[in-house]
Amino acid sequence: xxxxxxxxxxxxxxxxxxxxxxxxxxxxxxxxxxxxxxxxxxxxxxxxxxxxxxxxxxxxxxxxxxxxxxxxxxxxxxxxxxxxxxxxxxxxxxxxxxxxxxxxxxxxxxxxxxxxxxxxxxxxxxxxxxxxxxxxxxxxxxxxxxxxx
Length: 149
Hints:
Layout: E1 8-15, E2 20-26, E3 33-34, E4 36-39, H1 46-58, E5 67-77, E6 92-101, E7 115-122, H2 123-129, H3 133-145
Parallel strand pairs: 1-6
Antiparallel strand pairs: 1-4, 2-3, 2-7, 5-6
Helix pairs in contact: 2-3
């Protein structure tokens, strides 16, 4: 039996108090820079997914209470290169937006099959470098609110 990905995901924008944002480069699509993303697995809540994906993709361990739920769900068309991962006929994904503020820029441990490089950038540079409109919007939102938690 083929197991398809659920068309529900999270986007986690990781930043410092100085609004330096972490971006990671996709291994399968070089020059595609993004924040942490991942699909919500069966039986998992979006916040659980956010915490798990941050740990898997960066090595950063943070309790769920450190994540800010922006209560934004973006719906977008799944990139054609990734549609084979979903059940036939699934075209759209619902993405829940979170942010995670950490104390300072740090080295991260990438998942080598998923990402090849990372960088810390100002919010302007990070928003410009992202390939995804929803990721750009999330970075701009966090920067505009400049929330300290």
